[in-house]
User: Fold this.
Amino acid sequence: MRRPLIAGNWKMHKTVREASEYIRELNELPWDDSVEVAVIPPFTCLFAFWEARSRSRIRYGAQNMFWAREGAFTGEISPLMLLDLGCDYVLLGHSERRQIMGESDRMINDKLRLALETGLLPILCVGETLEERESGKAKEVVGEQVRWGLQGVSPHPGLVIAYEPVWAIGTGVNATASDAQDMIRFVRDIIQKEWGAQAAQELRILYGGSVKPENIGEFMVQDDIDGALVGGASLDPKVFADIINFRST
Ligand code: PEP
Assistant:
């Protein structure tokens, strides 16, 4: 049985003070402990999560990292610094980084290997653009991103993949639950070929793209969807809690 994971990606939102307030509010709301909850705030807010760690049920991680442990890389963040702040997760290959910052599959693979080597759990984001979907290339693109992202990586039970169609991110237009299930099953089949049946059964694969309280239930009843990566709707703790409590929403 894979434990559902609901992860909130704050992108470039919130100050440290706002993060502290959010952590307090979310922890005061009831949620079902069979669901794992994580928040992926901007780097600066990680301190608030670290500071609250003894009284918080929220796991957390960073939105990016560099592919070296230390060195002359101005403006970059090492996985060791993230571990020092108590991070469990690191988001890698988010479409905003691939598209706006020009991150390649090769860079993402370098980061992913170092994340695992140092003890961080990567959440590898993959997903096709609208143009790629409309030209029938969605599976080819997602398949390549998965294979490239995991090149040279041995099976790891803690790694997470998030399928996030680019056209569904921040647009209010979500994929249908059956299209998301179809793509996520396709990703699990790739993992099975690369890593074997047991690793494929253990690996959590999330859906991301305009998830909200009104649609989370449709995704969570699908056989292969193990949770959600939530952007905009994770910024308000009450709305995020409604997503976490998808069984009763
Ligand atoms: C995201 O940023 O990963 C995301 C899925 O955003 P949104 O939920 O706002 O579409």
Remarks:
- The mean pLDDT is 97.
- Strands lie at 5-9, 36-40, 59-62, 89-92, 121-126, 160-163, 204-208, 227-230.
- Residues 5-248 form a domain with the TIM Barrel fold (CATH 3.20.20.70).
- Residues 71 and 78 are 9 Å apart (CA to CA).
